[in-house]
Amino acid sequence: MPRAKKALLTAFNRNLDLVQPSAIRAFDNEVSDIPDILKLTLGEPDFNVPEHIKQAAITSIIENDSHYAASNGTIALRQAITGFLENRYGLKYDASREIIVTVGATEAIYTVLTSLLNKGDKVILPTPIFPLYIPVTLVGGGEPVFIDTSSNDFVLSPEMLKAAIQKYGDRIKAIVLNFPSNPTGVTYSEEEVKALADVLRETNIVVISDEIYSELTYETTHVSMAKYLPEQTIVLNGVSKSHAMTGYRIGFLAGPAELVSKFSLIHQFTITTPTNSAMAAATEALGSNLGQQDTLQMKAEYKVRRDFVYQSMTDLGFQIPKPDGAFYIFAKIPTGYNQDDFEFARDLAHKNKLAVIPGASFGPGGEGYIRLSYADSMANLNEAMTRLARYMAENKHD
């Protein structure tokens, strides 16, 4: 096996020195080899991709749809995306100029931040938040500005936002809003979205609105930030969560054409174009009536699971902001137990074979919490709550 020339070990982008491996993946890997471990760690739907969507991918392959597609995605998929955004959220975009199909929402995050950031630019990140934004910001030369929202039930208030803008002023290039939220499941009401838009409208801050869980809301209807601030907002979404298509790796971004044309440069030089068969499947998912029904059926099952896990953990003494979206529970470790969330999660995994993610993995405000995903069968969730109850009964201390 070759070994790198030692001098090359200092040849990297220096910003990589600021980046740590994903704490979520690292903890998941750490506990995965424990015998009989039951993992509620990763945010991945347990449903299979619906048959009509799989058939669209198969048909694409059989019909030799094997040549380069347009870099920004097939026009059929971009039209399906514009129809989806208009029908579901009242947003109007031009399929030819204002949509880019990305390799998952992950690539959309990378493309937008890499396109925007210059050295020293600041990015507001309301935390706890999906941690991917942090390393992408750092590698791009930007500086994260964390706003801990734990004191406000994990909702960014206009007052919190105004304080950050007053402190950093024109150095703020962008803000990331992820709702429904990973890790908390908390989302924003229409009034809360409008209030944030009113603050941001007075600035030149680009709003990166990650709405990947928009189709998985339970008691409310999702309202996009682009409804009130379309001229500054880049909407990120995709089919991974809504249609259980994580392995197909199809996301998208939507925004004003003048901004999207710049994002397309990074996009085309990074991935050229997404995979044709995956785009065909996503076209069926977003462009057909059956596709919407698929999501409604999954959402109904997630709601049953949410209610069961929420009530079970509440009965055990956990304090939980009741999630109105996504498929996560973000729970405060009760008094009388180890408040170091990494040590709590590690102990739970080894003693009672249940794996959850430590809350500190998601930034300031996550300390002392654990996140678990209820995107699993009721049988597994029942067993998980049994194991958790046993651990709580056996490990409380004064």
From TrEMBL:
Its cofactor is pyridoxal 5'-phosphate. Belongs to the class-I pyridoxal-phosphate-dependent aminotransferase family. It comes from the Bacteria. Pfam families: Aminotran_1_2 (PF00155). This is Aminotransferase. Its EC number is 2.6.1.-. Keywords: Aminotransferase, Pyridoxal phosphate, Transferase. The keyword Protein transport does not apply. GO terms for molecular function: transaminase activity. InterPro entries: Aminotransferase_I/II_large, AspAT/PAT-like, NHTrfase_class1_PyrdxlP-BS, PyrdxlP-dep_Trfase, PyrdxlP-dep_Trfase_major, PyrdxlP-dep_Trfase_small. Residues 36-388 form the Aminotransferase class I/classII large domain. It comes from Leuconostoc aquikimchii.
